[in-house]
Design the sequence.
């Protein structure tokens, strides 16, 4: 070299994309549509988030109410007399179904607290919850309201210490004024004295045709022998077939 200095190659910058056209400016309104799409997506996401939060809130309220109701029921059960008796779990018994109304006349009576000292008609309990349907009770008698065939029965518990005991189911009818008709009879004779405290039961029953206003009753010859320990020991009734 003439000047004594080292020669360096020249550096040229070459643009390799000179063969591509320059980018075009956005079309009119395109940027506005893009903004609208972004807002729509944001609003949709916001609505979904709000619905999710609302569902979580409702679920929390439901769980709170459920626990509160359980606590209230448990506290009431703990305060009940059954729960206070012990630590045993309290089970609620289902209510029994209602008793259907009879379709035909019937009556079933238990003995009351009164009885004849000697002979006479037995009286029966009509207070409380007796079973009487389409029959009338009056002074120890059952009065028929509808004629037809009836099954009539009576059971008496009595002391067997006496010499004899007689139980009769009788009927008074307007067809036989001034007299009574004997329907059923039980008689017991003790030829020899029995042990003190001996008890026996008598039962009679049968089917009879009854007219309207016929009166049926139970007659005993020794009322002092009738035992009135339990209402179920003595009963009297009839029902239409």
Sequence:
């Amino acid at each position: 070299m003439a000047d004594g200095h080292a020669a360096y190659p020249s550096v040229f910058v070459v643009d390799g994309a000179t063969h591509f056209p320059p980018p075009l400016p956005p079309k009119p309104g395109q940027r506005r549509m893009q903004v609208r799409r972004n807002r729509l997506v944001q609003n949709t996401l916001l609505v979904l988030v709000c619905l999710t939060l609302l569902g979580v809130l409702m679920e929390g309220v439901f769980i709170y109410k459920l626990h509160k109701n359980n606590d209230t029921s448990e506290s009431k059960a703990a305060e009940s007399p059954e729960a206070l008796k012990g630590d045993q779990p309290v089970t609620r018994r289902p209510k029994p179904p209602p008793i259907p109304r009879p379709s035909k006349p019937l009556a079933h009576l238990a003995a009351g607290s009164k009885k004849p000292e000697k002979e006479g008609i037995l009286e029966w309990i009509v207070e409380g919850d007796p079973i009487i349907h389409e029959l009338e009770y009056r002074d120890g008698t059952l009065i028929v309201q509808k004629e037809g065939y009836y099954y009539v029965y009576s059971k008496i518990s009595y002391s067997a210490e006496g010499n004899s005991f007689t139980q009769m189911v009788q009927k008074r009818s307007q067809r036989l004024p001034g007299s009574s008709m004997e329907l059923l009879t039980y008689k017991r004779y003790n030829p020899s004295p029995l042990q003190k405290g001996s008890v026996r039961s008598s039962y009679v029953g049968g089917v009879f045709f009854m007219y309207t206003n016929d009166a049926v009753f139970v007659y005993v010859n020794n009322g002092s022998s009738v035992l009135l320990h339990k209402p179920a020991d003595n009963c009297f009734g009839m029902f239409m077939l």
